[in-house]
Each structure stands twice: as C-alpha cells, then as structure tokens.
Amino acid sequence: MEDDQWELCNDDGFVYKRKRRRLDALPPPPPEPESDQDFAEKRRRERKKHTLLKLKSQYEKEILQWESLSNTLRSMQEQQQQHTPLRSQSNQTPLLPSTSSSTGSSLLHDLLSQVEAQEAIIRDVSNLCDVSEAMCVKREEQFKQPFFDLPIWASPLELMRGLCDDSI
C-alpha cells in the first residue's frame, strides 16, 4: 500500500522518491493563448521597467556619492595649493640667529599653521577613506544578498518541499 503512493524518479542520475501524481479525470481547460501571452508580455515589460528604474536610481545615488567625494578631494587639493606658497616662503627665510623674539615667534607660528593644515588634510583624507570603504562594504553586501536569499538556506523541510514540488 505504501509503495503505491510513491514513485522513483531518475533525473539525470539523481534518483529520488516522490509521491505519485493523482490523475484527474478531467484535465483543466487550456487557457486562452492570446490573452495569456499578452498578459505575460505586459507583466514582463512591467518587471523589466521596474528593474531598470531601480538600477537607474542605484546608479544615480552612486554617481552622487562619487561626485561628492570628487568635490571634497578637489577642495582639499585647492587648500593644499594655497598652503604651498606659504611653505615655500617660509622655507626661503634664512634661519639666522636673531635676537628679536618676534622673528622666532612668527617662524613658530608659520610652522604651527603648516602642521594644522597638514592635520586637516590628513583628517579629510581619512574621512574620504572611511566613506569609500563604507560604499565598498555596502556594494559587497548588495552583491552577496541574492545568494543569502536563496531557498537552500531555509529550513530543510521547505527545501525538500521545493525539490519535490510537481508544479515546476
């Protein structure tokens, strides 16, 4: 009795048992081919349009992020170029021993301003690195997510139900 309910299936060398299909006396009437084809074509176009719009918005967001990073880098380069003449002028000043403390304090002030400018540049570059790393991590997660959404990661019962489903 139990063997009558199960049948062996061989699918390219993969052998498995599945429940026998119940044969209905009356097969369902065939659907109207034209309306189904039109409906399927309309659904396919809608899915394609939705997918393309989603992809477009993702690309636009990414372009905006890269433009922001590029603008930040340009402003940092401009700041660097503005500080470069100050450094060249301070390097040209002779380091002669002087008795006045004003020359020493101005030289010290120039050196401190250079160090502060370099510190700001390093901080800006570090922020840019953090932002680009976050973008890369997000992109990697988006790339991995479809693999985590596969039904193979679900419960074993759902996996077996999916493998044994006759409607596919």
Report on the structure:
With 168 residues, the chain is mostly helical. It has four helices and two strands. The chain has a two-stranded antiparallel sheet with strand order 1-2. α2 runs antiparallel to α3. It is elongated, with a radius of gyration of 35 Å. The model has no long low-confidence stretch (mean pLDDT 79).
Main features:
168 residues, mainly alpha, two-stranded antiparallel sheet, 4 helices, 72% helix
Helix/strand order, N-terminal first:
HEEHHH
Share of residues in helices: over 70%
The profile of the biggest β sheet is: 2 strands, antiparallel
Number of helices: 4
Rounded to the nearest angstrom, the radius of gyration is 35 Å
Strand content: 5-15%
Overall 3D shape: elongated
Secondary structure class reads: mainly alpha
- The N- and C-terminal alpha carbons lie at a distance of 27 Å
Strand order across the largest sheet: 1-2
| Poorly predicted runs of 5 or more residues | none
Number of strands: 2
Biased composition (Polar residues): 74-92
Region (Disordered): 18-51, 74-104
Biased composition (Basic residues): 42-51
Biased composition (Low complexity): 93-104
